[in-house]
């Protein structure tokens, strides 16, 4: 069965006495190990879709299964628990905690999981090494460049080893060297570690890695393209 299954999912925002459907009847199945790119114009519902998949928000109508479990009506505490176990976020705004150094930012999600923190710090050091920041462990976010902050955010998103990685324009504001680095890193997570990756991006280099591309328009799926090695999506 699919890792994620959305059945007739709606997200309706109420503003005063008007309603707006940011998502209007989404049906989508995502299998384990997919590299799914979400495309669509501004306002088409991409962030809303990511928030639902990431267990950050609940649908107004419809059903979402994650690992065959219905997550569409869960209480926030339960949703947060599943989010912590299943989802790694690579969002553009980094969301690093400004008062914590790089290492502490990476260990934080493990503390939420009440993991063994001696092991936790070892894993944080390993991850910071993987992203090439061993010498910046003690730096606060304000003492890092944009690309370095993004790499700390990546290390943090992997700290609890989640099976699903959600990324929102991960290469958006970065120089091409850091962008390439992140591209290769995501590719490795997908191909070597079998992670399921779901990305909102317009970066054509990332689209080339996709197994499928979902096009959103006005809160609906306009089309889904399947990509192959012989004929990558573009
Ligand atoms: P995208 O990520 O594709 O730009 P979003 O998912 O952010 O699109 O937004 C989809 C639509 O829903 C937009 O028209 C946006 O204005 C609206 N929207 C998003 N969040 C809210 C909210 N909290 N309240 C009201 N409308 C919202
Ligand atoms: P990049 O070329 O990656 O954008 P920057 O030019 O922003 O890097 O920074 C160069 C180096 O200086 C980086 O290694 C960064 O960690 C360090 N650095 C930047 N700002 C500060 C700061 N406020 N305090 C300490 N180190 C800093």
From TrEMBL:
<dbReference type="GO" id="GO:0022857">
    <property type="term" value="F:transmembrane transporter activity"/>
</dbReference>
<feature type="domain" description="ABC transporter">
    <location>
        <begin position="4"/>
        <end position="234"/>
    </location>
</feature>
<keyword id="KW-0547">Nucleotide-binding</keyword>
<dbReference type="GO" id="GO:0016887">
    <property type="term" value="F:ATP hydrolysis activity"/>
</dbReference>
<keyword id="KW-0813">Transport</keyword>
<dbReference type="GO" id="GO:0005524">
    <property type="term" value="F:ATP binding"/>
</dbReference>
<protein>
    <submittedName>
        <fullName>ABC transporter, ATP-binding protein</fullName>
    </submittedName>
</protein>
<keyword id="KW-0067">ATP-binding</keyword>
<dbReference type="GO" id="GO:0098796">
    <property type="term" value="C:membrane protein complex"/>
</dbReference>
<dbReference type="GO" id="GO:0005886">
    <property type="term" value="C:plasma membrane"/>
</dbReference>
